[in-house]
Amino acid sequence: MPQGKLGPYNYINIKLEEIEQDIRESGNAILASMLCQLREGETDAIEYIGLAYLYGNDGLSADFDKAFSILQLAAQGGSIISQHYLADCYAYGIGMPEDLEAARNYYQLSAQSTIPRIRDAALHQLEWLKQRN
User: Fold this and answer.
1) What confidence score (pLDDT) does residue 116 get?
2) For the chain, which residues make up each domain, given as ranges?
3) At residue 5, what are phi and psi to the nearest 5 degrees?
């Protein structure tokens, strides 16, 4: 399957109906259009919705469980930004127990980014993890 698009998303830990309801209640037109793209497995839309849940943006309440599940899905689809956010969550124990090995794995993936800001941040974090051991 080409990067940027996922197959069936029903293996995430939350029900699509919950996401649909949250987005309807938000009244946010951008999220509503992202929902259509989410149904089609578009990685960018999945990432956008995951970050909206992580930060409580665009009319959604912050919900770490939903954010984490959705960001994992986007990361599996090749989203470097989602991989980096997951690495940070693992590295700093944001919403979960700290897991430095998982953080290292996700930082290594995001260090392959063509976006200099993401790549440099990931490389910096990998150095920081080496010093923690």
Assistant:
1) 95
2) 1-78, 80-133
3) -145, 135
